[in-house]
Design a protein that fits this description.
Layout lengths: L1 E5 L6 E7 L9 H11 L8 H4 L4 E5 L1 E2 L2 E2 L4 E6 L3 H8 L19 H8 L5 H7 L4 H17 L3 E9 L2 E2 L6 H5 L11 H14 L5 E8 L15 H10 L4 E6 L2 H4 L4 H4 L3 E4 L3 E4 L7 E2 L2 E2 L4 E7 L10 E3 L6 E3 L10 H24 L4 H16 L2
Antiparallel strand pairs: 1-2, 2-6, 3-6, 4-5, 7-8, 7-9, 9-15, 10-15, 11-12, 13-14, 16-17
Helix pairs in contact: 1-6, 4-5, 6-12, 9-12
The structure holds ligand EPS.
Length: 378
């Protein structure tokens, strides 16, 4: 499976091409659009989400409501392009919205140095988290495929700024949380933290948890370093623009414990097979899924666009100044959880297709079923 996306934040559209999805998967645009709608929610979002009505247009790879095995191309129109045409169209003059005072923490400065550009707009337009709309659209297809395999995905917000949930939700609880701020408790404190930051021209980060149920044991491998699933899923999740850390299971607590308290004792029952009473490992041992619920925490930095800007230096004049402010969100922790679900779906889908490599859904389901039987009879 391969995924590529293209598109600038204020360009005409975002595009995703997803290749390698087996033929015969039932999917329609409304399933994809429901995920896009979730991505645009969240307490702390900025004005952009009021402009957009993200909808995926299916350009290829799906016919009569089913995948046909060919690359799937999806397009999400940027409605805001109408306001940016004169600066963003391929044939535009491209002047008038320059950014020359780079924002510390954003891709602006390293980006202009790398691509040798005199206007950081050329960098920020692609570095913007707007791109994640394309990946959430593609991720919806992976999610649909996983549904067929009995795998479901959920997420929650663990903290916003210094307001943390004191409890971690179960998978079922996570499915029922308020989509505007999906925290098990202390959501009121989190709202206050976001409001206070907005009033001060500040931003706030936080942490989210993403979880998946129903995964077969045996995805990924210890046999070669680059096949370890922790590393692969870590890469997917770290590709969220504001993500700076990924943790599996409860390692943030358990790395302080003695080994005997940090691992999950093994039990056996003729009905259930092998099972655990705890899940410190978060569903991964030795770079392989162990059949328990997969749990990953993603740490998100506060967004670097600030109305209370940090010192910067003009890239053209080299004179000191304050970093330029762009429109942005005060807090993007809630959409990050939806994006993390999409990326986990893509990462798991990739791992399933690698193990059970199939061209059609019939073949995939047969292969997975045969393997499930083998594990049950072990
Ligand atoms: C985003 C769209 C962007 C930003 C945000 C995420 O739109 P605009 O720049 O027009 O306001 O709101 O992007 C960033 C946080 C960033 O740092 O680039 C979106 O659709 O998710």
């Amino acid at each position: 499976m391969r995924l590529l996306t293209a598109g600038e934040s204020h360009g005409p559209a975002l595009t995703a091409i997803l290749e390698g999805v087996p033929a015969g998967l039932a999917i329609d645009a409304s399933f994809i659009n429901a995920q896009l709608a979730r991505r645009s929610l969240g307490f702390g979002r900025g004005a952009r989400q009021k402009i957009e009505r993200d909808q995926a247009e299916i350009l290829s790879g799906i016919r009569g409501g089913e995948t046909i095995g060919s690359p799937i191309a999806l397009r999400v129109i940027n409605r805001d392009f109408d306001n940016w045409k004169q600066f963003m169209a391929a044939g535009a003059i491209a002047r008038g919205r320059e950014l020359t005072l780079p924002r510390p923490g954003h891709a602006d400065l390293p980006g202009v140095l790398k691509y040798n550009r005199g206007d950081a707009r050329d960098v920020l337009e692609r570095a913007s988290a707007r791109e994640t709309a394309a990946r959430v659209a593609a991720g919806a297809i992976a999610r649909r495929l996983l549904e067929e395999l009995g795998v479901s995905i959920a997420s929650c917000v663990l903290s916003v700024g210094d307001a943390s949930s004191s409890k971690i939700p179960s998978f079922r609880e996570a499915l029922r949380l308020d989509p505007e701020l999906p925290m098990l408790n202390n959501a009121g404190r989190a709202r206050k933290a976001i409001e206070a930051a907005r009033k001060k021209g500040e931003t706030v980060g936080g942490s989210i948890m993403v979880m998946a149920q129903g995964i077969v044991p045996g995805l990924g491998s210890y046999a070669q370093w680059d096949r370890r699933l922790d590393a692969r899923l870590g890469a997917w999740l770290l590709s969220i623009p504001s993500a700076k850390g990924v943790l599996f299971g409860d390692i943030l607590q358990s790395h302080r414990l003695e080994g005997s308290k940090a691992h999950d004792a093994i039990f056996y029952d003729s009905q259930r097979g092998f099972y655990r009473k705890s899940n410190h490992a978060g569903g991964l041992e030795g770079g392989i899924t162990n059949g328990e619920e997969l749990r990953a925490t993603v740490l998100l930095k506060p967004l670097p666009t600030l109305r209370k800007p940090l010192p910067s230096v003009d890239i053209l004049t080299k004179k000191p100044g304050l970093a330029q402010a762009e429109r942005t969100d005060t807090c993007a922790v809630v959409p990050a959880a939806v994006i993390a679900e999409a990326l986990l779906a893509l990462g798991l889908c990739e791992a399933y297709l690698e193990k059970f490599g199939s061209d059609s859904m019939e073949e995939l389901l047969r292969n997975v079923e045969g393997y499930r039987r083998q594990v049950a009879e072990f």
